[in-house]
Write the structure tokens for this entry.
Amino acid sequence: MGGISFKRGASALRAEPLLVAFVALAAIGYATYSLVRYAHLDVGGFDLGIFDQTVWHLSRFETPANSVRGVDNIWGDHFSPILALLAPLYWIWEDARLLLLAQALLLAVAAVPIFIYVNAKLGRVAAYLFALAYLAFWGLQSALSFDFHELAFAPLLIALLLLAIERRRWVAYFPLLIALLCVKEDLSILVVFVGIYVVSCGALRQGLITIALGIVWYLLVLKLLIPHLSETGDYAYWSYEQFGDDPLSALAHALTHPDVVVRTLFDNGTKTHTLRYLAIPFLGLMLCSRTAILLIPLVAQRFLSTDSAYWNTGGHYALAMAAILFIGAADGLSNVLRWAPDTSRRLLGIGVAAVVLVLNVAFTASLNPSLTDLARGGFYETPAYAKDAERALQAVPDGVSVAAQDNVITRLAHRDVAAQISPETGTTDYIVARIIDNGVGVAPNGGFGVISRYLGARLNSHVAVAYVNGWLVMRSKSLPPVARAPQLVALHGTDAARIQSAYAVWLTAFLDYGRELARCLSASDARVCLRPLGRAFRLRQARLERELQRVRPTLKAGCLQLVAPAAGTARLFADTIEAARDAGARGNNAELTQLSAGLEALQARDATGYITRFVALCTKATPA
């Protein structure tokens, strides 16, 4: 049979200008929200930076190496060749924001085939209600709040695929099937179930071909291609070891132990919460449709996994289900309405569709009202720290290797080496990070402490070349020298020497105090051991505070900003460790436990790094 007619589709769209308007408004809203988040630095190297660097390499006809992800070939991590379709767009504009715009359009346009499908089943009004419900679906909003992902292609492709099956348009069906396989390697399992669904629709030959295609693709990609391209030689994302080492053994275990499957599906509150959000907004109607077959692998992949990241409502994980849920609910409603009197079917269909719309809006509002930010005036104001970051990044030239914290990686990914700061990150030509902790954009790096320690280990090998209100850019001393950051006016001579000396003896006393405190707490006579501790440290602390206070009036610009957290953290450490010693000397174990946890938190954040960085960046050694 023939393919889906583009002329017929365009004619249908011209007949539905309201649908075009809704889709256009949704795409504009999605794009605006995504671009404002980008301007606010509410994006990350994981995942936007990964995809940005991948598409950038593809646009240059290069092997898709990915230094953000830390792999030599991204296809050895996930196989998503459909990203190559976006590469030509980078010939027009090389920018990560282009991916956000493409995602906004892909997600919005999927409402069109959903409308066409529902229109044939339930009529025009119900089709509009379902299309609007899809555009408001919480799964889309969660994805938009999590940067870009290759699964942005899934709703449109799956909706078109189901429409092709419904209309028996096999010429269009198979190219769509290949495109879906190219979205992500694990969708090959969904394709097998698509084949089962097609067989259940009465198309035996096409269904068997689909099943075979899914199995062959799985074996080729997950058993041969990815292990061949992966540095570890295997596929890193199999997380169903409790069922088996591969899908076949896992399926066999699941079929012979259905009780284990049921228990695993509902063994966690996060899972049941997400499952409610996947079922209730659709009134469970998709279970009245044979399209429920397609939900089996997707539900299993998420909720039988040992990876808890799959269980929650965040991120992009609902995108593969989105079109199936809405088309399945519409088909299920159509099946249920067969039992209703002919005269009331249309009105009942509209009424239930309206309930689906209201429920989807309500569940989205309760979970992820991100797009409501578009109506908030302050949302469009770029925060000062984001503007400061853009200014600081101007000091990083093209082509050099760079390590940076997560939320600025997307500004730096168009180079061979753009690495996210982590304990495993090696030395790079440039380093970009915020050295005043505001808690923004550092969690994927392992927290502020990881960034602080990474910088601390390179204060001798790199020199500061830019500083803008907390954002620091450092350049390797192995490169030709350039001017130091003009915003960091260092102390010289006696002032510098006195600060350096006070810091050195303070740090030694602090470390000694910590060791002695730990020794006494484990001693049998802890209270007696603790009472005399800390005298040397208190003297060193007082000296450091005096020196910092003395030079404060002479400090300028960036160094004046850095002295406050340096002095503050020194005082906080002193107060906390003294309080812990006092609690131990009084035998107050509950207070001691609480204070010890506070000290561990300070050490995890590398709070002493504030003092270390101030001394390194704002005092200049006096020549011998």
Notes: Residues 493-521 form the longest helix (29 residues). The CA atoms of residues 195 and 207 lie 4 Å apart. The mean pLDDT is 91.
